[in-house]
Amino acid sequence: MNSYSSGKSGGDVLFLELCKYFNQYAEITVITSCLGKKLALEYCDNLNFIITDKRKHFKNIIFTYLFRGIKALFFRIKLKIGDVLYGTSDFLPDVLPIFFYKLYNKKVMWVQKIYHIIPSNRKFSSYAQNFSFFLIKLLCNKIIVINSNVKEYLIKKGFDEKKIEIIYPGINLNDIRNKKYKDCTNYSAVFVSRLTESKGIYELIEIWSLVCKKINNAKLAVIGSGDTEIINGLAGLIKVKNLENNINMLGYLKNNDMYSIIQSSKLFVFPSHEEGFGLSIAEAMALETPVIVYNLDVYKEIYEDSVTYAELLNTAQFADKIVKLLNDEKLLAYYSKLGLEIVKRYDISKCAEKELTIMGFI
Fold this sequence. Notes:
This protein is of the alpha/beta class and 362 residues long. It has helices spanning 10-22, 34-43, 61-73, 92-104, 123-139, 148-156, 173-178, 201-214, 228-240, 255-264, 279-286, 297-302, 315-326, 329-343, 348-359, and strands at residues 29-32, 48-51, 84-87, 109-114, 142-145, 164-166, 189-192, 220-223, 247-251, 267-270, 291-294, 308-310.
């Protein structure tokens, strides 16, 4: 989990939830940063750690990732037959060290997670992912993808179909639903994610500006952290659009506080441009909060018609659909009930059992 940056990604959360099941069958050592260790201990305390980066503040992403990836190459890790090298993401700081560990320990198993395909217009990230794919194709034993689109893409790129398994992610449904959450501010909508451009954060501000023209007291909670430059940019945009009273930037929140706000909000808004699954969507559904998203193909496969769709990058349509939902309690109730029924398919225990089987532990 060497690519951990700030906040928490769906892939990080999924891996750490899976660790609760994995550690019943295997001893787990996580190669990560000091920041990654801090997040991991929020979920699972029975873990060993190898730390690549002791800095407690995340700065330049490219330099930081290069530093961690190179640092991880020099750890002397004793591996034996039956051990598994588990790549939590296809980012180079995760893949590159595993490739070299596998190169010198070919009898151990390499299991690699791939969540989604980065669009070619994000040139640097796309090139880096393609280099990761080159390394994965050479030595990886099993590839776990989370939707059929990714599997089809990899097959077209020459990956061995027999090595690829589709395993849908899951959430800890019972844990999320059975906890009692504190009363908090009732928001019109909530957004939860790492604050990066690909998550649609700048459009989110534009969307909410349009919503407030029709519902002037509408309030949005934004949960998540990101680079200082992005946070300052969002704060400036909120000020320019006179939305200081309509948007609250809450930063990173631990699960109980985050779930309290999601549960008390009327809507979960998520204008992300690219997703493999959208774990935060599943969490919102578990809390019976209706969801509105851009119409990405992957959502149709996983969530079907249990969410409200807007055309990709059509901020006006996204805003109109938010307004329609906020003004229709019956429609909100319909999506709340439908979302809960859909998300019951995606329990973390099922995901863990399938992955443990692939790794040969059960």
